[in-house]
């Protein structure tokens, strides 16, 4: 099967305590525009979304301890407005840079009063403190001896921010959202161990791909790439870079 021509996009979901969320400050609006992102006025709304509590409940990151708190859950339950921000379609080699930009927007929106944040493209949510931590780690990872640069450490932080793993599939512990950092998904056979074991292996392989390249990592580990996907090409979770299956 030929590689897909689909270019991934970030869909960022912000909740707020009033309709002021829908009119970001000039500084935040400038950051959004400067990075090539845009506010989606079609689906943003100055009223609560009754589906948000259930959606966030499914999306909370359960791998990192204390990734969200009771206060974060309460903020979701009590929200009064919803704002969606979209990235431009991303080229694979620019995906990490755009994901770092998405984290910067998340940070500025939280500082401006957003009360909850979710990455819709993979269905992952963190509490506000965790989002701020990830944004800080991303900025630190961009600093090298030669100035600012896109690094493997940045890719890791953006992956932890916007991708989800392990997702419980029929036969595999799966990742979703790795296309947001320019990587294929990684599916680990359930027979290899627990979901925690799978999460560690997924992170290990993804880290290697970020540092050494996809092809070199697959060759070293004798893994292959599949183009089959359960997601349609118009689904934000569709990964155009394929799936790596790690068998038993």
TrEMBL record:
Protein's recorded name: Uncharacterized protein
């Amino acid at each position: 099967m030929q590689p897909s021509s689909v270019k991934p996009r970030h869909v960022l979901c912000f909740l707020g305590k009033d309709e002021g969320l829908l009119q970001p400050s000039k500084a935040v609006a400038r950051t959004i525009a400067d990075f090539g992102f845009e506010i989606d006025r079609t689906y943003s709304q100055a009223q609560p979304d009754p589906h948000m509590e259930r959606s966030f409940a499914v999306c909370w990151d359960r791998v990192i301890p204390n990734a969200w708190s009771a206060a974060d859950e309460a903020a979701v339950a009590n929200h009064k407005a919803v704002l969606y921000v979209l990235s431009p379609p991303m080229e694979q080699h620019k995906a990490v840079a755009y994901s770092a930009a998405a984290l910067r927007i998340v940070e500025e929106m939280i500082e401006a009063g957003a009360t909850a944040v979710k990455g819709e493209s993979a269905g992952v949510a963190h509490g506000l403190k965790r989002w701020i931590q990830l944004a800080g780690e991303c900025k630190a990872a961009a600093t090298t001896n030669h100035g600012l640069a896109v690094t493997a450490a940045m890719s890791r932080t953006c992956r932890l921010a916007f991708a989800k793993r392990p997702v419980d599939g029929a036969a595999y512990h799966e990742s979703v959202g790795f296309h947001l950092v320019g990587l294929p998904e990684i599916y680990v056979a359930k027979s290899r161990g627990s979901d925690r074991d799978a999460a560690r292996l997924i992170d290990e392989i993804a880290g290697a791909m970020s540092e050494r390249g996809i092809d070199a990592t697959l060759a070293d580990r004798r893994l292959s790439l599949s183009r089959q996907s359960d997601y349609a090409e118009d689904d934000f979770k569709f990964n155009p870079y394929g799936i790596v299956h790690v068998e038993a």
